[in-house]
């Protein structure tokens, strides 16, 4: 079984490399068609799942699991869903653009799969080695990767930041408890939305899980990690916001809270009908963990 999985990963990796090279070659050739086809002329939408390329020597089982299941889905639903592994934001953008142009499609739902970084004190996500945050999006090079996708956006496009705390709006204590800092996840959502010019941006106030059932409308993104360090007192705001997501409408320029999200088999966004705490009856568990938080566990 391990040999089969490794063979699949190698095959998909070579396939993605080929796509990236084709996109780069096209970018270097004389641009005979300067204008992008209008969205009205496009036949359908494509959904994307963006995964950061794994660093050598780093064992990340969650990322490997996502690579295997999304690459298989990409093979089975090539006209609806595409899984992409990227080293950086520029490479991500080139691969997405190549697929959109090839299929004469607009951008449907795009999920940026990433780890968060609570200790930095602000909402962010990663595309390969590129950190994407309100601060780094002030760099024109990072802006370009997202601006290039704007012509393919519609009011129905969905941008999902799949990293923990990416949409956090609370102030959290630093890991040494000496000060507090606001996470500014809403600023990240608004900045990204302004660059892509349309659609809706989604991000979580707390942890984002990608358990089995993510592509089956299940509440697979809700939950919390089991490691002891997450019972540190500095994580109190994250525990208080488990299962809470925010959405930012670019057209209305408004942020609102929503229930936990999921995806359907084609990778389309699904918002759960009930709050995660109510759906999973986890109120008592969360309150118990909140009451048992202790300092000094992070280190």
Put the structure in a nutshell.
By secondary structure, the protein is an alpha/beta fold. 32% of the residues lie in helices and 21% in strands.
Observed structural traits:
globular; disordered N terminus; 299 residues; alpha/beta; 13 strands; 8 helices; 7-stranded mixed beta sheet
Can you characterise this structure?
By secondary structure, the chain is of the alpha/beta class. It has one domain (7-16, 43-228, 243-278). 32% of the residues lie in helices and 21% in strands. It has 8 helices and 13 strands. The chain has helices spanning 2-28, 61-76, 89-102, 140-147, 185-196, 236-240, 276-280, 283-291, and strands spanning 44-52, 81-86, 105-113, 124-127, 130-133, 158-162, 171-173, 180-182, 200-204, 245-249, 254-258, 261-263, 269-271. Strands 2-1-3-6-9-10-11 form a 7-stranded mixed sheet. The chain has a two-stranded antiparallel ribbon with strand order 4-5. A hairpin with a 6-residue loop joins strand 7 and strand 8. Helix 3 runs parallel beside helix 4 (140-147). The longest helix has 27 residues, at 2-28. The two termini are 37 Å apart. The model is unreliable at 1-6 and 8-37 (pLDDT under 50).
Put simply, the count of helices is: 8
Number of strands: 13
What radius of gyration results from the CA coordinates?
19 Å
Biggest sheet record: 7 strands, mixed
How many domain modules?
1
User: CA-to-CA gap between the ends?
Assistant: 37 Å
Can you list the strand order of the major beta sheet? Answer: 2-1-3-6-9-10-11
Low-confidence stretches: 1-6, 8-37
What is the typical, i.e. mean, pLDDT? 87
Structural class: alpha/beta
Q: Helical percent range?
A: 25-40%
Query: What general outline do the C-alpha atoms trace?
Result: globular
- Tell me the fraction of residues in β-strands, as a range: 15-25%
Order of helices and strands: HEHEHEEEHEEEHEHEEEEHH
């Amino acid at each position: 079984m391990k040999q089969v999985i490794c063979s699949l990963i190698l095959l998909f990796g070579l396939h993605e490399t080929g796509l990236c090279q084709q996109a780069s070659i096209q970018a270097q050739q004389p641009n005979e068609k300067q204008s992008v086809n209008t969205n009205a002329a496009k036949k359908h939408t494509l959904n994307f799942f963006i995964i950061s390329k794994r660093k050598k020597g780093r064992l990340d089982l969650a990322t490997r699991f996502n690579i295997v299941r999304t690459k298989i889905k990409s093979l089975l639903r090539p006209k609806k869903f595409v899984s992409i592994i990227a080293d950086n934001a520029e490479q991500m953008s080139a691969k997405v653009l190549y697929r959109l142009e090839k299929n004469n499609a607009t951008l449907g739902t795009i999920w940026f799969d990433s780890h968060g970084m609570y200790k930095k004190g602000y909402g962010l996500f990663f595309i390969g080695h590129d950190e994407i945050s309100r601060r780094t999006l002030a760099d024109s090079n990072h802006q370009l990767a997202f601006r290039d996708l704007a012509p393919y956006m519609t009011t129905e496009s969905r941008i999902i930041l799949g990293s923990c705390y990416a949409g956090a709006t609370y102030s959290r204590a630093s890991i040494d408890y000496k000060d507090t800092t606001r996470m500014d996840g809403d600023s990240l959502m608004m900045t990204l939305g302004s660059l892509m010019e349309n659609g809706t941006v989604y991000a979580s106030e707390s942890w984002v899980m990608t358990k089995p059932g993510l592509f089956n409308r299940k509440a697979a993104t809700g939950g919390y990690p089991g490691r002891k360090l997450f019972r540190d007192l500095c994580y109190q705001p994250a525990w208080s916001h488990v299962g809470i997501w925010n959405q930012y409408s670019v057209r209305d320029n408004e942020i609102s809270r929503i229930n936990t999200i999921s995806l359907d088999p084609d990778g389309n966004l699904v918002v759960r009908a009930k709050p995660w705490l109510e759906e999973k009856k986890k109120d008592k568990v969360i309150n118990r963990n909140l009451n048992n938080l202790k300092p000094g566990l992070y280190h």
